[in-house]
């Protein structure tokens, strides 16, 4: 399999590059080489690399900044996927496009199925939803849309890295306890994506994938602290305090509940989020948050 990977410098892109299946060739396409918001650059990259499949892991992911930079968010998250989907359709190539739980408004109290109505709360979620629609319209059955949530890994900016830094710096830390989701390791997500690409299942469909189990941000922080203490018992780690969303105002509203009903039609092990978190805390402590 000859795969082209956009967003190769991001958290998920790095995890995909670290786990390339034997016999596969993955061509990393960093932003410097191809801005997916530029249709001509996308066409040129497709012609140059002639892949058999494309994974779009590129995204504008600054959820709060998107509220004041909507053009940049839409360019990458809506126009970019449209350009990629058109190029994939023209070349007869499969596209796996990564999307987000932020397409939902979080008013449900049971896991969101892929066909549940979307209602994004902010610019980031809306731009990703428009990207999904463009992918479906342009690439049809050649595309799989894979939504995920609360992504973290050993590289890039994420909640685990931020918590480890703050837990080491502060005496006490307030963390939101009334937003519920499923933390998802980039390593698990990469395995799910490769499993999908290895077969034909999922063509023309929208699917959900996260690690198993649910947590609030407070629960997530608590587990990070537990594993950090286990690894470095002599170090001082901040005490954690649960707070409400209202006590931590942000420019973008976030879904209060965004657990996804995961429906991947391939046999891929789905670890509990705590199990997947453990090695990432260890790796981040080794490299320094
Ligand atoms: N992070 C989460 O919690 C989360 C949750 C749900 C879904 N997702 C989805 O999962 C996917 C991967 O996210 P991630 O966490 O790996 O994101 P990330 O770490 O922010 O990586 C995104 C990558 O996309 C690149 N990029 C941004 N604009 C681009 C453009 N116009 N053209 C080409 N590349 C561009 C970025 O490059 P620069 O670094 O140079 O900007 C970066 O390398 C995205 O589709 C995201 O929406 C993420």
Spatial sequence of strands, sheet with the most strands: 2-1-3-4-5-10
- Supply the helix-strand structural class: alpha/beta
* Morphology: globular
Q: Strand portion, in percent?
A: 15-25%
Task: Give the ligands present.
Answer: NADP nicotinamide-adenine-dinucleotide phosphate
CATH level-two architecture of the domain at 2-150 and 183-212 and 259-268:
3-Layer(aba) Sandwich
CATH topology of the domain at 2-150 and 183-212 and 259-268, anyone?
Rossmann fold
Q: How far from one another are the termini?
A: 35 Å
| Uncertain ranges | none
The ordered string of helix (H) and strand (E) elements is EHEHEHEHEEHEEEHEEHEH
Range of helix content: 25-40%
Count of beta strands: 12
Give me the Rg, rounded: 19 Å
Q: In this structure, how is the largest beta sheet organized?
A: 6 strands, parallel
User: How is the quaternary structure best described?
Assistant: single chain
Can you count the helices? 8
Residue-averaged pLDDT, rounded? 96
Level-1 CATH class name of the domain at 2-150 and 183-212 and 259-268: Alpha Beta
CATH superfamily of the domain at 2-150 and 183-212 and 259-268: NAD(P)-binding Rossmann-like Domain
Account of the protein in words:
By secondary structure, the protein is an alpha/beta fold. The chain has a domain of 189 residues: NAD(P)-binding Rossmann-like Domain (Rossmann fold, 3-Layer(aba) Sandwich). 39% of the residues lie in helices and 17% in strands. It has eight helices and twelve strands. The strands form four sheets. A six-stranded parallel beta sheet has the order 2-1-3-4-5-10, with helices on both faces. β3, α3 and β4 form a beta-alpha-beta unit. It starts with a strand and ends with a helix. Bound molecules: NADP nicotinamide-adenine-dinucleotide phosphate.
